[in-house]
Amino acid sequence: MADLKKIAFVEPLSDDTDRSQTAKGRCGDRENDRDRDMLLRADIQSLGNLLSESLRRLAGERSFALFEEIRMASKELRALPVVASARQLRDRVAELPLAELRTLSRAFSIYFDLINLAEQRARLRAIRRRALDGEPLADGIEAAVRQLCERGVPASAVVDLLERGLIAPVFTAHPSEARRRTIREKLESISQQLDSLEYASLPPGERERALAAVGEDIETLWLTSLVRSQRPSVVDEVRQGTDLAESLYEVVPRIYRETEEILRKSYSDLQAARLPSFLRFGSWIGGDRDGNPGVTHDRTAEAVTTQQRTILRKYLVSVEELGRRLSHAGDCVRPTALFLQTLEEDAKRWPELSIQPRREPYRAKCSVMAARLRATLDYVSGLRPQWTADVPSVPPDIYSGRQEFLDDLTAMSDDLRQIGAAAASSGLLRDVIRLVEVFGLHMLSLDIRQHSMRHGAALDEILAWGGVTPRYLKLSANERFDCLARELEQTRPLVPAHLPFSPDTCEVVRTFRTVSAILEQQCSEAIENYIISGASEPAHVLEVLLLAREARLFRPGEGISRLNIVPLFEAAAPLQHASAIMQRLLSLPIYRQHVHLRGDVQEVMIGYSDSNKETGFLQSAWSLYQAQCSLAETGRRGGVRMQIFHGRGGAIGRGGGPANRAILAQPNRTVDARLRFTEQGEVIADRYGTPKIAERHLQQIINAVLRTSFADDEDRPPPAWERLLERLAERACRRYRELVYETPEFLAYFEQATPIAEIGQLKLGSRPARRRETTSADRPGIDQLRAIPWVFGWMQSRHTLPGWFGLGSAVCDHLADHPEDRETLCEMYEKWPFWRTQIDNAQMILAKADMTIARLYADLVDDQALAERIFGQVSAEYQRTIDAVELITGHEELLNEMPVLRRSIQRRNPYVDPLSIIQLVLLARLRRGDEPRDELLTAVLESINGIASGLKNTG
To answer: Which of 238, 546, 673, 891 could disulfide-link 709, Cβ–Cβ 3.0 to 4.6 Å?
Structure first.
């Protein structure tokens, strides 16, 4: 698109930006880096030009001139950040009528969507170039396998690792994706047209039409509402998540083919080996009912059905395509007697298909599979799973599980191979087999999540009704554990078929019954995990096991346990006691039997969000690190594989950051080739919305899992480093809690200096911003605020506090007392992946903060003395943290070794600033009670969308 006429909407970055900087270990030379940046700038400039044309045509020259005025003033402010100048700009913007403010906000917001698109294209361009050059990626699968070979890891060890391996991204509906689905579709259309312009040899007429189509899409973007008019329902979120996951259907076979080829190239004795299937994908969307009253047992059943219909339709298309390809004639090939026998049986079972086994045998088999898939799709679409005393039978002609479908596919593949048709067995058929191995008949394994308080309240009522104990919740923790242990040894039913309980208790019971019905009647693999949020004692796990038993999910006498029960440890105290909790559970024979029935694997989820909100950035990370170490050791002592499920968000304050680095930063011997982790909010679309980027992301994850699973004991940090980090974490936590929890007015500052109240009205997701429980009869406290809006609010107001606060004081105060540790901290950064990841994440989020703009948000606080006092602490800590990071990294500026990221932030910040200024003006008017209130609120929500697009990593 570099051939478009240049106009003044966007200026390219100066040629000397980052000219001398090259990231450590980065592939390619400086010239390639500059070429890629030039192409990116050309894309941004061209898209900006088209946007400016729409702005001039649809909003007028005055709006364009106003945009340029505010843009240039913001650039000047960025060059010389002075609060007085920022206030002057704010006051200038405050003179504008609401209509012009909304026009400006829309222009900057759409611009950021276009920047995001251009940067995504730059990533794709780099991927394509390296593929054409045959250049191995430093964090790709080939680099990891080469490293293992060089270290002398034998092929058998790699295969054994992958045989027991599990890499499972889990998509959640956590509401930090601010863009509407319609906006994403428009941007995808623009991207496709840009691909045509760049990679297709289009004749002049088609090229002009492609350019016109881009301009049309940008014009439509301008005329499309940027915010949702209604909050999405749970069903809407399920459909959106399923749509985004569809890109995996294309990606997964390529990942396996590439990995097999790399392994065989590196290990000659693996020529005949077939790579085990270690990838799986999960979802919380429609299963996560913690604090979301919209997620009921009916919605869970609907989520499973929606996913099944999607994947069955995908399989049907693939099998029909196989039938078209596998036209091998009976007089040209000789199928084995066994394969012909199965076809003859199929002909009797499906007479309406008029199968002729010896004419086109493989096409005939495809027609049978297609018929069974259609029957399965019809059955699933019409099914309403109902829990009954007697398990209803499943129709014999459908695929009731993954293995039946796989048996048909592999029988055909094996027969083709035996007759010498290796190409046919290794083409599309092989890919479909991989897809079925990964996605089964359910697509994404749906996790169920509920808060421990709901289980406790339900059992309090059930146990009282059954005469077991009148006041279960009044018992001590040990008494509750003993009570549940006794009940689990009983064989009598505890819950009656007809439920005489309160609506909340009935819903808890119906959830378990619905899960049981789905697994028995619909798909035996659709649901595997039950997450207990707020888990803080062993009884919280036994509560779920008892409720599962009452729904036929746990039948120890029959050797059946159908759910992994996964406690989620989030807050500081549960993380500290996680190992002791699991140790007590594993010492109980009935629970140990359950774990044995689940393959001697115990999954434990650790949450990054609440621990960060409670203890701050550094203490949270260190607590999670320690918890993993102790849990892994507990598992080894108990003969159980302790599998960690990482509840990471998109923002640094919620465990976000590059996934590859996060995995490499995990403690030694805690991954062991098994890893589940959440993908949340805007990162789902960013990482999985485009097939090539999804493929690259999965390559990075596989690289990290392989490397960290074979880490040597000598790679462990010295004990002295761990002791030093322990002291730093304690100091950082103390500083954080002094501000956030021990300053009485801090909550008022947060509520007034951020758009948190307005964020609660943004139709991001189906889930409310606060939990239902409160700490007092007054307003809810910080404890009850969900971590997502907590982080989102600080990002919007440019403080970015959850991603760094406390780190600077911890390092500076420690070095004041122990100056000799300065070199140690630098060495830790160079050699300890965990510490390096924390510092790199901190400097990324520090670079997105802006204390000049943040001070203007503090102007929104009613008590300006309070605002000055709290902002002064935040600002001082911000500078101390920058000083600490630069000292540890040995560089004079942030992100010195991450030039691509630094350029991206530098490219965005001058355009985020005016959006922040506009938002400040709108918030002031809205909170004053100006009219029209509804339009003001909509304008604020539009600005929130724009800032989220500009900053990224928001939730």
So the answer is: 673
Between vectors from CA 665 to CA 661 and to CA 670, what angle results, nearest 5°?
125
Instruction: Provide the token pair at 242.
Output: 């399923």
Q: What local confidence, expressed as pLDDT, does residue 770 receive?
A: 52
Q: Which helix (H) or strand (E) holds 449?
A: strand 445-451
Q: Which residue has the tokens 């703009």?
A: 853
Contact 735, 877 (CB under 8 A): yes
**Whether the Cβ atoms of residue 350 and residue 368 lie closer than 8 Å to each other:** yes
pLDDT digits over 367-426, tens only? 999 999 999 999 999 999 989 877 778 898 999 899 999 999 999 999 999 998 888 889
Q: pTM of the predicted model, to two decimals?
A: 0.90
Q: Residues near 481 by Cβ (< 8 Å), separated by ≥ 6? A: 537, 538, 539, 542, 584
Residue 932: enclosing H or E segment and its boundaries? Answer: none
- Cα distances from 474 to residues 453, 471, 538, in angstroms, run 13, 5, 16
Quickly count: other Cβ atoms within 10 Å of residue 609's Cβ.
25
- Would you say the C-alpha torsion 883, 887, 891, 896 has a positive or negative sign? negative
Output phi, psi for 447, to 5 deg: -85, 145
CA distance 382 to 379: 5
Q: Is 174 a catalytic residue?
A: yes
Q: Give the chain's end-to-end CA distance (angstroms, integer).
A: 33
Q: What is the DSSP secondary structure assignment for residue 279, as one 8-state letter?
A: B
| Residue 62 contacts residue 104 (beta carbons within 8 Å) | no
DSSP codes joined into one string, 682-740: HHHHHHHSSHHHHHHHHHHHHHHHHHHHT--GGGSPPHHHHHHHHHHHHHHHHHHHHHH
Euclidean distance between CA atoms 396 and 399, whole angstroms: 8
pLDDT at 360 exceeding the cut of 70: yes
| Euclidean distance between CA atoms 472 and 469, whole angstroms | 6
- Report how far residue 389's alpha carbon sits from residue 737's, in angstroms, rounded to the nearest whole number: 53
Q: How many CB atoms lie within 10 A of CB 641?
A: 17
Please give the average per-residue pLDDT across 160-171, as a whole number.
Answer: 92
**In 3D, which of 82, 89, 222 has the Cα closest to residue 921?**
89
Provide φ and ψ at 302, rounded to 5°.
-65, -35
| Domains recognised in the chain with CATH numbers | 1-135+183-224 (no CATH), 293-439 (1.20.1440.90), 445-647 (no CATH), 719-897 (no CATH)
CA distance 498 to 198: 64
Q: What angle do CA 175, 179, 180 make, to 5 degrees?
A: 100
Q: Which of 174, 442, 540, 594 is catalytic?
A: 174
- Given a contact cutoff of 8 angstroms between Cβ atoms, the answer to whether 117 and 190 are in contact is yes
Rounded-to-integer distance, Cα 519 and Cα 565, Å: 16
Say whether 575 sits in a helix, a strand or coil: helix
Q: How much is the pLDDT for 707?
A: 92
Task: At 721, list the tokens.
Answer: 């480093």
Q: Tell me the β-bridge partners of 641.
A: 601
| Alpha-helix residue ranges (DSSP H) falling in 598-715 | 609-615, 617-638, 659-664, 682-688, 691-709
Would you state the pLDDT for residue 24? 37
Query: Measured between alpha carbons, how far is 308 from 285 in angstroms, rounded to an integer?
Result: 14
Residue at 535: amino acid letter = A
Distance between CA 798 and CA 135 in Å, rounded?
A: 39
Asked if residues 393 and 520 have their Cβ atoms less than 8 Å apart, the reply is no
Rg (CA), the chain: 29
Determine which one of 451, 455, 594, 613 is catalytic: 613
Quick one: tokens of 695? 């493929």
- Crossing angle of the two packed helices 477-489 and 538-550, in degrees rounded to 10: 30
What element of type H or E holds 156? helix 155-163
Burial class of residue 324, CB neighbours in 10 A (0-12, 13-18, 19+): exposed
